[in-house]
Write a structure and sequence with these properties.
The protein has about 170 residues and is of the alpha+beta class. The chain is about 50% helix and about 10% strand. It has 7 helices and 4 strands. A hairpin with a 2-residue loop joins strand 3 and strand 4. It starts with a helix and ends with a helix.
Length: about 170
């Protein structure tokens, strides 16, 4: 896969924006992830060329932090916390229900590109256990019976977005 010209331009602009920071890599990667939803190898190679940071180091950072992704994710990223506090309050059953309803496993995206399920280690919301994060919204004390309501809410938001754009 080759990066399109507009993506090359965008990534070079992102690098230029942060290159003079003391430790620019995390900011660059975060900005690329935000813009494109993932950080493909071609983008990592371009970042390496622009910054002088080795591809191995960049790849190591991308694969170390769970919020970076090497593959495209869905419009709605459902992160189910499986940290200790959430796990003891049945978050495994919650993620299993998301998988059952959406027909995908953790780490996968639905064929329509709408949903991705992520198994998270801890989202820092232990008092809300079991917690589920959909994009930037955190759902507290999620039960198995809440899963379909959360999916329906996302589908409704998407339908409203589509109506506004038409």
């Amino acid at each position: 896969m080759r990066l399109q010209e507009h993506a090359i331009k965008d990534i070079k602009e992102i690098v230029a924006q942060y290159i003079n920071e003391p430790t620019p890599l995390m900011m660059i990667l975060s900005a690329v992830q935000t813009k494109y939803g993932y950080i493909p190898m071609e983008a990592q190679e371009l970042i390496s060329e622009e910054t002088g940071i080795s591809v191995a180091e960049i790849y190591g950072v991308v694969t170390f932090y769970s919020f970076f992704s090497l593959v495209p994710k869905g419009k709605y990223i459902i992160g189910v916390c499986l940290g200790t506090a959430c796990y003891v309050k049945n978050s495994q059953q919650v993620i299993d229900k998301f998988s059952q309803v959406l027909g995908i496993k953790a780490g996968e995206t639905t064929q329509d590109g709408m949903f991705t399920i992520d198994a998270l280690r801890c989202i820092g919301a232990c008092a809300l256990a079991p917690a589920v994060r959909v994009n930037d919204k955190v759902y507290p004390q999620v039960r198995v019976e809440d899963v379909e309501k959360i999916i329906d809410e996302c589908e409704k938001m998407e339908a409203e977005k589509n109506e506004k754009s038409n």
